Structures are given as C-alpha cells and as structure tokens.
Amino acid sequence: MGKRRTTVTIILLAILLLGTTGLALFTQRRVADCAYVPLLAGELLPNAGLAPGDSPGMPQGWGRGANGVELQGAGKGFDYDGDSRALQLIGIGNYVQTPPIGVRPGASYCFAGRALTDSDKHSTTRLRVVFAWRDAQGQPLGEDRSDWQPVVLWQPSAPPADWSRIRAAFMAPDGAATLLIRLQPASDDRVYLDAMHVRRGGDGANETHLAPSPRPSVPPSVAIQPWPNGYRAALSFSFDWETTMGGLIHSRSLASDDPNNADDPRARGLRMREGITTTLELFQPYDIRATYYATGYNFLGGNPEKQTFMDDPTFAWANKDNGWKSDWSQRPWFSTDPHSSIQSDPDYYFADLTGLLQRDRQDIQSHTFSHLYGGYASPQEWRADLQSWRAVAAERVVPMARSLAFPWSSSAGMSDDSWRELEAAGITSVTRTNWSQPAYRLADRSGWRCLPVPGHETILACPDFYLIAGRITPPGAKVAQMHAGGGPDEAIRQIDQAIAQRGMIDIWAHTEEATAPAQIADWQAVVGYAARQRDTGTLWIAPLAEIADWQQALRELTVQSSEFKVEDAQAPLKFTVTNGSAHDLNGLTLDLPFETARYTLGSKELKTQNSKPWPEPGRRLKTLVIDMRAGTTLEVQAWPA
Ligand SMILES: [Zn+2]
Asked: Which residues surround ligand 1, an ion (CB under 5 A)?
C-alpha cells in the first residue's frame, strides 16, 4: 500500500504544479501506460495482492495449467513489490491465469506486470500475454495474444537493475462479459511474476503488441484440406538409432524410457546395427520412406586417430541423482571409445550403414551427436552437439538435420537459449518430447497434430507413439493419449484415430526393437495396415520432417476471394491462392462450395495431380488438387456445374 500512497501524493502534487490542463495530459499518459490513476484507472484484477486461497500454494481465484505454478515469498524465491509474495511459473506447456475480470464490450483493458527468471542455464526467457474473452454464459469468444516479451535474467553475481515489464492491452470484443488473462513462457526456465495489475486503458501506448492478432484470410467458401492429395491423415515411421556410444553405454534406469536398459550395452549396439537391415526389409515391399534419428558415432567408420568431439566433454549433470545408472559426472562422456574400427567394434561405429539408408531414400535426422539430455544440457553444450553432428553427417553426404528426436524424451528443462540453438541450427521439427509431465508438454496427442513450440514457432513438436513389439493391449483400454507406448493393436488404433481426427502420428521404436522374428512380425502387421490405408488414398506416409514441412507451409498459405458475385448462379468462383512458404505444396487439396465441371488455373491450363486440365466429360469435382511452388500465387476460377 506504501507505493499506492506515494502515487496518490505524486498525482496530487502534479495537480498543484501543472494545473488542470497539465493534469489532463498527465492522467491521459498514465491511463495509456496502464498505470494507476485514482477514479480513472483503478485496479480491476481481483486478488492482485496474491493472497493465498483454498488450494495449497495458489493465490485465491488464480489458475494454472499444471503443477509448477505456486506462491513464493517470505524468504523463498523473489518478491518485487515488498509484500513477500510472488508467483512462480515453470513449464513451456504451463501458464498462470488471473481470476475472471468483469469487462464491457468496446472498452480497452490493459495488463501490466513484472517478471524475472533465475534460469539455471543462465538464459533469459520470454513471456506472452493472452487475453481470453468470455461471454455472459462463460463461453469462449476468442483470444488476443501479445508478442513474446523479454524476461530479464537474475544471477547471484549479476542481479539486474530491475525486473522486466510485461504488458498487453486489447479491446473487449462484442458480447464480452469476462476476461481471463494468461501468462505463458517460451521455455522451461523458472519465472517469477509479481506486481500484476489490470486496468482500463493502455490503448494510447504506441506499442506493437497492441495490434490485434491476425485473422485468417480464407473465405469460408473454399476450404483447404490438411494433407496433400486428399489424404485424410499423415503417418511417419521413425527409429531412434544409436551405437553403443549413445544411450546404451550412458544408460538411464527408467524402464518407461528404455525397456531394454538392463541388457548389455554392447549387445544392444549390435542389435541397433542389425535393425537397419531388418527395418529396411520391412519397408522395401511398400516403398515406404521412414526417418532414422542417428547419433554422431553412427557416422564414424572408426576412430583409430583418437579424434575428440565437442571438446571432449564431461557432463556434470549426468549423475545418479539425475537418473544415470552409473555416475558420468566425473568421466569424459566419450571415454569408452575403443578408438578402433568397424571391423573390431561394429557396435560403436555405423558408417557403413548410412549408404544402405541413402540407397533406399530413407531420411536421416538427428538424435543428437552425444545423446545428451536436452533439459539438463546448457545452450553451449547444445551448440557444440549440433555442430558436431552436422560435421560428421556431412562426411557421409547426409544433409544437415532439420528434425530432432530428443534422447530419453528429454525436452523438459529446455531453456529459451537452448531452443534458440535448435532454431539457429535449422531444426524445424522435434519429436520424443516430454509426455509424462503436463507442465512441459509440447506435442498434441489429443488433436493428433504437430504444434508450434511456444516462442519458437519455426519448430513444430510432433506427437509420437512408441510401438513396443510384443506388448498386448488390455481389452477395453482407451486409446493412449500420451506416448507411453503399446503393442501393434494399439499402434493400429493410433493410425485409425489419426485418420478420424485428420491429424498425424509418428510411430517409433529403436532399431534394436525390430530384430527378433516376433518383433518383426508385429512391425509387419502395422506397416502392412498403414500401406493399405495409403493405397486406398486415406493415409499419407512420409518422413516426419516432410509432414512437419507441410503443416508449417499451410500456415503460410492464404486464399482470397477476388470476386464472388452471388447474384448470378452461373458466375465462376474466383479466388487466389498464395503459397507464402519456402516449401512447394504439391497436391494441395481445395474443397469448393459446389460441384464443378470446369475450372481454370491462372491463364494456363490446369495441371492437376491426375494431369487432367479439365474434368473428364460428365465428371463433376468438388475437390481441386493443385501443385503450388513456394512463393507463388495462382488465380483459380471454377464454374458451378
Ligand atoms: Zn536414444
């Protein structure tokens, strides 16, 4: 309350000093700035003081996405405004939510708060403010989102001069009765929030994040199908593929991550090698391209010259407390390298196998060079890892990775700077993201879609399902929402669900898990089922990176009506399609509002997927399939049949 009394005194002094005109300007600026002004811009946020409530660790009336949000203060954590209370927020899939705020349509509302991170990776981070509007019945009316705003880093040796200001202002839409404000982080760095206020105003501030969020430009009459060539869903098969030097010698003891963790690492390395032959045989009859997520030693033909990688790191975090079966925190990570050849240690070096994959046009992507733990590794360790992977892959003429499978599903704990390293290295899709803790959840297993990583939207996080060959699904089991894994029956149900949702799923295992005859039989059942769905035009099967590319490119596709006159029933529907992305969209599928027997693309004759410039005589189409190069615009005209 001390601060407020000071504010009132300052304003009273301002009245004396400036007179009424000056006061008007002064208060106008404060309202525009989302600052407190008596009578004009009072506090609208219930329990802005964060007084504790009924649920333990939470202020009364406030909400959260998951565990990881809790009250701090009284000697624990940080406090900005001197009331011994602040809110901690942890988890990129998490958020803090204010109590409901009463609003009036057409009025402008602003949020102002303070934030700071004490990231253990010494990373700054960012927050986004989301205004979620509700009508009088509590039904959602849409959301407005601010830009990502920087959150300053606190370190004991270098405390910042001040906490970061987090702000947003939007106008209440028609019908709005209440507002919920959510704060979302762009990483798993721990954030503290305090001095949060909601007031009228904020509309005069000259800030970009006041702009309304863009609305889709697609006219309702033309719909874009989610996948190419009219396929209803997308499927990728992928393998985590590592030599003994990956997660095998550096084994962790969690059976949910790794059911074979009790086996001899070197026997597993040999099985990982054997799994290339067996999985290629699985896909050859169907001409299916899968993804092989490889570690760095997969590209080595040996190491007799005792070359070191990533400056020969020792990972201080790889200790028993963090789940490793033996302590690696004092031992160089690559110290078990036999410094020999494929002939003497075929479980350590796999360079002879990359050619087999390339021959079959299989996709080779990154399982990290070192099989590090993503959430423990520092941004510098990530950078060294990504660079080393690229260097050894290039020696086998494997392009730089665009897709990454987190070792041990270890995305939880990723700092904002670590995600930036992935972005800078050109990674555009990730999988094997944390699935067991909601606060860290990135992929959408309920919508069967790849989702943009918050704050790092050039990267999509794609849902996956762990096919554990030999596992029997209990009768009556629900379709697993998370990638806990299951047997072939469950994998087939996952494919059916993806089709029902018009979504995507990645079905994966380690190559070592498709080597025994019974395992191969289980895989054959799933691959055969998928191939039949593909051959009936239902399922698109492609490497995960290509599926993510498609989804990402569709986000940059716009359709605009150039002319649509409803008066004349025989007038053509005219619209332009723009592929604003960097990827060709071959087989782009458009649903028209009517059946057509005649259509044109630009001034040229159509090149459709079936290479027919016109529908066959007497044939009517409601769906157009077109090829669109990256960065091009096409004008489409279609006449009602
Ligand atoms: Zn692995």
From this structure: 240, 247, 407
